[in-house]
From TrEMBL:
Full protein name: K Homology domain-containing protein
PROSITE patterns in UniProt: KH_TYPE_1
Lineage: superkingdom: Eukaryota
Region annotation Disordered: where it falls in the sequence: 43-63
Species this chain originates from: Diploptera punctata
Bias (Basic and acidic residues): 43-52
Length: 175
C-alpha cells in the first residue's frame, strides 16, 4: 500500500467529485483505492520536496503559483491502482474552450426559453456561456471535462453548419 498525491486546484474539487461524490466513489470502486480530499480551510502553502514544478492537469509545468494544502488530494492503495486513480481524477478537471458561433445563430442555439442550450448542457454535462447580446460577439465558452467539451464543441459546430445550410436554402428560395 502506498499513498500518492494528486494536485488539483481546490476550485475544481466540486466538479471532480460530482453530485454527492458520485464520480469519486466510482473511481475508488473501479481502482480499489481510498481518496482523501483536503479540508476546505487548509490554506497554508504546501511544499512537495520531490520536484520544483508541479504538472498541472493541462500538462503545463507550473512553478510560480505555490501549491496549497487545500489543492492536495491523497490517494491510498496499490501503486498501479493509485496511478490509474490519479489519472482518472485529472481527467475530470474541467477545461474551457472558446467556440466561434456567428452572432446571428445565438438565438437558434439557445432555443425557445433556453431549451436547446440547456439540452446541450444536460446531454454533454458541460456549461455553455454565450456572449452578451449587446456585445454582438461570435465567441462562446464551453466548460467541462475535456472529452465532454470536445463532444459538445462538435455538436455546436454541427448545429452551426445546419443553420448555415438553412440560411442558404432560404436565400435560394427567395429568388
Amino acid at each position: 500500500m502506498v499513498t500518492i498525491e494528486c494536485i488539483i486546484p481546490q476550485k475544481h474539487h466540486r466538479t471532480v467529485m460530482g453530485a454527492k461524490g458520485s464520480k469519486v466513489q466510482r473511481i475508488t470502486y473501479d481502482h480499489d483505492v481510498q481518496i482523501k480530499f483536503p479540508d476546505r480551510d487548509a490554506r497554508e502553502d504546501y511544499h512537495n520536496h520531490q520536484d520544483d514544478g508541479q504538472q498541472q492537469a493541462n500538462g503545463d509545468l507550473e512553478e510560480h503559483e505555490p501549491v496549497r494544502m487545500c489543492d492536495v488530494i491523497r490517494i491510498t492503495g496499490k501503486p498501479e491502482n493509485c496511478e490509474a486513480a490519479k489519472q482518472a481524477l485529472l481527467d475530470l478537471v474541467p477545461v474551457t474552450v472558446e467556440v466561434n458561433v456567428p452572432f446571428d445563430y445565438h438565438r437558434s442555439i439557445i432555443g425557445q426559453k433556453g431549451r436547446d442550450v440547456r439540452e446541450l448542457m444536460d446531454i454533454y454535462d458541460i456549461h455553455i456561456v454565450l456572449s452578451p447580446a449587446d456585445q454582438h460577439l461570435d465567441i462562446n465558452k464551453i466548460s467541462g471535462t475535456p472529452a465532454n467539451v470536445e463532444d459538445a464543441k462538435k455538436a455546436v459546430e454541427e448545429r452551426c453548419k445546419e443553420l448555415e445550410s438553412e440560411k442558404q436554402d432560404r436565400i435560394r428560395k427567395s429568388f
